[in-house]
Write a structure and sequence with these properties.
This protein is of the alpha/beta class. The protein contains 16 helices and 17 strands. It has a seven-stranded mixed beta sheet, with helices on both faces. Strands 13-14-17-16 form a four-stranded antiparallel beta sheet. A two-stranded antiparallel sheet has the order 1-2. The longest helix has 27 residues, at 400-426.
């Protein structure tokens, strides 16, 4: 350390002479130094001493001087607990707090599925800027919002610009008028307005429900399933570590849903869990549970004292007469089920953001507390209510004119689904979905779905979704979305025929 400091001051002394030689050569004593050593030697000596000083500080300072810097920055000695070695902040550019990371986030695997798809798509586009990309990937609506529904949004925005029409915060549970319309026009008065909680979308509602359930609950999910059910369970601390052998998280019950069981879980061999996440029509498989299957699910939940979180975001796409659009159509469901839904796929509100949750008054915890009371507390504490403009649009959606416009949108996308489904069947593939849902689920037996995804992108420039992104039960499948223009679906099918025909 002493040697290091000595070299430091000596190097500074040489720099002083370097400056002096540049500016004061008329002085006698400076001229003597210049004649004896030369300006160039003085400069080389200074830089050499600096290098030696830096090397010595790097070795010596890390154990002593560097640690004193740590003490001054942090107030105490600090260790990197992962490696159990001391850190030399003189060698580290970043500053770290003393806040411990939520360990549950370290369990999560890679990134969330859909941003990863977007990343791969963008990377391909950068490398191939001349290629025409068609997206049958993420389930994002593409048609413009229809006239009557749009007029509702416009009216909501216009009111905010008038003295009499302006409104600030509204009820966290949603406007009374919209809650009443949802109860009457969507559920045919099967639910009460007070049981409806208007929100900014079903995905956010899943997260808020998980916050309410807390880390001590156990969950079951369909396999494959929408990733948000699993990932929010992990974030809440409801799971153990990711099991590389099964490609599943220990602590979650995965209910296999594939062609061998009609995409409905084998409930007789499913262990009890507190929460059962169930999506119908299903994302990603496109399968829709029949009335008898939902009756079996409700009976299973009642027998085990479980709560079903029923995701009905794709209910308006149901065309089969034996497929309920709501689990609350099933007798006994009000005692065991919560239903989440959204205007996103109904009316093209993926960017507007408006959804709802129904929690029946009869649904209660083991101590008798109404579940609705706790969710009301979550909403009033953590949410300021859906946008006034969005809710005005929601009211327009549920007018007769709005419902007619929604039906036209659904018909358009379902024609796309039928085209994709028929094309892949004609090419010899085993295909599911596309009849009661906007998703077509195509089987590629024995192949990695990520490999198929890459192959289709490279050879046809069509973006799909690899089934493995929805869980291990989805590997070997590709999901195709009907949320595209008719022209894009027709072109995609033509490219598939050239590739697989």
């Amino acid at each position: 350390l002493a040697l290091s400091l000595s070299l430091f001051f000596l190097s500074d002394f040489c720099v002083f002479f370097e400056v002096a030689l540049e500016n004061c050569e008329g002085f006698g004593w400076v001229r003597v130094w210049s004649n004896c050593f030369g300006k160039r030697h003085i400069v080389f000596l200074a830089w050499g001493l600096w290098v030696m000083e830096s090397m010595i500080l790097g070795f010596v300072g890390s154990g002593f001087l560097g640690q004193n810097v740590v003490n001054r920055v942090h107030g105490s000695s600090r260790k990197d607990t992962r490696r159990n070695v001391r850190i030399a902040p003189s060698m580290v550019a970043e500053y770290r707090t003393e806040v411990k990371r939520n360990e549950n986030f370290s369990k999560l695997q890679a990134g969330y599925l859909f941003p990863e798809i977007a990343r791969r798509r963008n990377a391909y586009m950068e490398q191939n800027p001349d290629k025409d990309i068609i997206s049958l990937g993420i389930g994002d609506t593409t048609l413009p919002i229809p006239d009557h529904i749009r007029s509702g949004l416009q009216a909501g925005a216009t009111k905010l610009g008038t003295k009499n029409g302006y409104s600030g915060y509204g009820a966290e549970q949603g406007s009374a008028g919209l809650r009443e319309k949802i109860a009457s026009n969507i559920y045919n008065d099967r639910v009460k307005p007070e049981e409806v909680f208007v929100s900014d979308g079903a995905k956010c509602d899943i997260a808020r429900l998980q916050m309410m359930f807390g880390p001590g609950t156990t969950s079951a999910v369909q396999d494959p399933s929408y990733p948000v059910y699993v990932d929010t369970s992990v974030m809440q601390g409801q799971t153990q570590l990711f099991n590389e052998g099964t490609s599943q998280f220990d602590g979650i019950t995965y209910m296999r849903c594939d062609s061998s069981n009609g995409f409905f879980p084998d409930l007789e061999n499913t262990p009890r869990t507190d929460i059962i996440f169930f999506c119908s029509p299903n994302n990603p498989t496109g399968a829709a549970a029949s009335k008898s299957q939902l009756e079996e699910l409700v009976s299973f939940a009642k027998k085990n004292g479980s709560i079903i979180v029923y995701d009905a975001a794709y209910a308006p796409f149901v065309r089969s007469s034996d497929v309920p659009k709501s689990i609350l159509e099933i007798e006994g469901a009000r005692e065991v089920a919560i239903e989440c839904n959204s205007f996103s796929k109904y009316a093209g509100f993926t960017g507007v953001r408006l959804g709802w949750v129904v929690i029946p008054n009869e649904l209660k915890y083991s101590d008798g507390t109404p579940v609705r009371s706790d969710f009301n507390r979550v909403m009033t504490t953590c949410f300021n209510g859906a946008s006034n403009i969005a809710q005005s649009g929601g009211l327009a959606c549920l007018d007769k004119e709005g419902l007619d416009e929604i039906e036209e949108l659904i018909d358009y996308y379902m024609k796309n689904a039928a085209l994709l489904r028929t094309t892949m069947i004609d090419l010899g593939f085993e295909v599911y979905g596309g009849t009661d849902a906007p998703y077509v689920w195509v089987s590629f037996p024995g192949r990695s779905s990520w490999d198929v995804f890459n192959e289709i992108l490279e050879k046809t420039q069509v973006v799909t979704i690899p089934g493995a992104g929805f869980g291990p039960g989805g590997d070997g499948f590709i999901r195709m979305s009907a949320f595209a223009s008719k022209e894009s679906c027709e072109e995609a099918c033509e490219r598939f025929r050239k590739m697989y025909g």
